[in-house]
Amino acid sequence: MVVVMGACAGAFWLGHAGALDGRPVTTHWALEAEFRAAFPRADLHPEHLLIDDHDIVTAGGVMAWVDLGLFLVRRWLGAEVVLRSCRHMLIDPQGREQRNYRSFRPRLDHGDAAIRDIQRWVEKNATSDLTLATLATKAAMSERTFQRRFTLATGLPVSRYIQELRIEKARGLLERTTLPVSEICWAVGYTDVSGFSRLFRSVCGVSAGEYRRRFSVA
Predict the structure, then answer these.
(1) Looking at 4-149, which runs of residues are DSSP E strands?
(2) pLDDT tens figures, 11-53
(3) Which part of the chain is the HTH araC/xylS-type domain (predicted)?
(4) Which residues, 6 or more positions from 25, have their beta carbon under 8 angstroms from its beta carbon?
(5) Model's pTM, two decimal places?
């Protein structure tokens, strides 16, 4: 069996070759929108760092060639050689996910000025009561119209957008401050620390404490 592989933007070459229709694939998380637009028939999973689909293997991220290399070693030489290789290279043999690293980048180039104004207001007022009703009223639209236009413009429903925005702010506070997780929870607009912790893990793939341990520069 011939195995074709692509890392990071290399998945685009596979797409242009017509090899990805209906196939699970990954690429760098920042290229998600561009990739989906170019290859709508591909089954894209940007949250994964590596996807093994038998004869097509893709990895996301500039440095994901390391994970791709370890995958090759594991497939043909076995887990023990992987472990020895990791020890020699001083790297972690455990699997990673792109959602550990991704950041939220709101779409602002969509052309809907009214929705863009709301996005900017939400950015400055993330701790406010950001309900659909509140935002629709501020935009002078019915809730149904606002939800439709917001989703069309940003690519996300209102509730998911606010969730992503708040978690991104929490990432920043974990990286750059020593605030307790409970205070970060309140600082980004949540009141239930347990609920916030579960949400953070579901979005980022690791706990808030583990995220801070890995990425803090404070």
Answers:
(1) 4-7, 24-25, 43-44, 50-53, 56-59
(2) 999 999 999 999 999 999 999 989 999 999 999 999 888 999 9
(3) 116-214
(4) 11, 14, 15, 42, 43, 44, 45, 51, 53, 56, 58
(5) 0.74
Give 178's Cβ-side CA count (13 Å radius). 1
Domain count, the chain: 2
In a shared domain, residues 132 and 45: no
> Do 23 and 83 sit in the same domain of this protein?
yes
- b or e along 70-96 (b: 16 or more beta carbons within 10 Å of the residue's beta carbon)? bbebbeeeeeeebeebbeeeeeeeeeb
Query: At 144, is the secondary structure helix, strand, or coil?
Result: helix
Q: Is residue 107 part of a domain?
A: no
> What pLDDT score was predicted for residue 177?
96
Q: Is 21 helix (H, G, I), strand (E, B) or coil?
A: coil
Q: Are residues 28 and 53 in the same domain?
A: yes
Query: Are 168 and 192 contained in the same domain?
Result: yes
Specify whether 28 is located in the same domain as 57. Answer: yes
